[in-house]
């Protein structure tokens, strides 16, 4: 009888561990679809070049909130800035090469943190600056130091583009405007709602 009781007890403990693991994994999941009730964020008009003209790219997002010009024809068009219920702010856009020849994404856009740089070229050097709250927000990192942003960036061929994202801690709800900064690119002001 004791052997049978031990087997039942051991089996029940195993079931409890499996059920706990399922609930833990389900609780750590991320919604695959955006929430319909999220307030949209807006930004200022696209940045102008020295001649006063916006530089078009081959395929810009349907709605462009800001355009940042970088080196050697690289251009970042910000398409959306979304807060989520988890306290994060996600910036999405498209990195394009408007030049006549291929252009390597500069290593400076990864930032200079050793943990981030060792994971390859990314947009880990991006920051949001809240001048009213006097805070700078950096791209989030996972427990291994990988930035929560598009990574593995290399050469962008002339006329090509790459969809990109960056995830930051969300500024307080009363913060209505931040400056988006990415090394080697012009800064842009993003209005948050």
UniProtKB/TrEMBL annotation:
<protein>
    <recommendedName>
        <fullName>Secreted protein</fullName>
    </recommendedName>
</protein>
<keyword id="KW-1133">Transmembrane helix</keyword>
<feature type="compositionally biased region" description="Low complexity">
    <location>
        <begin position="38"/>
        <end position="51"/>
    </location>
</feature>
<feature type="region of interest" description="Disordered">
    <location>
        <begin position="35"/>
        <end position="61"/>
    </location>
</feature>
<keyword id="KW-0812">Transmembrane</keyword>
<keyword id="KW-0472">Membrane</keyword>
<feature type="transmembrane region" description="Helical">
    <location>
        <begin position="12"/>
        <end position="30"/>
    </location>
</feature>
């Amino acid at each position: 009888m004791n052997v049978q009781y031990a087997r039942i007890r051991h089996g029940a403990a195993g079931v409890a561990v499996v059920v706990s693991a399922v609930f833990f994994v389900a609780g750590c999941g991320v919604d695959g679809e955006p929430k319909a009730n999220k307030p949209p964020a807006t930004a200022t008009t696209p940045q102008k070049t020295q001649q006063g003209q916006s530089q078009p790219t081959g395929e810009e997002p349907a709605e462009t909130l800001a355009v940042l010009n970088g080196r050697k024809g690289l251009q970042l068009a910000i398409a959306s800035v979304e807060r989520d219920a988890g306290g994060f702010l996600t910036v999405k856009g498209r990195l394009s090469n408007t030049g006549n020849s291929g252009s390597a994404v500069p290593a400076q856009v990864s930032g200079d943190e050793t943990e981030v740089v060792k994971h390859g070229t990314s947009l880990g050097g991006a920051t949001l600056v809240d001048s009213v709250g006097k805070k700078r927000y950096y791209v989030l990192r996972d427990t291994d130091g990988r930035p929560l942003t598009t990574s593995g960036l290399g050469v962008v061929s002339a006329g090509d583009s790459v969809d990109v994202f960056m995830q930051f801690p969300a500024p307080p709800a009363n913060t209505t405007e931040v400056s988006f900064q990415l090394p080697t690119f012009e800064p842009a002001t993003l209005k948050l709602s």
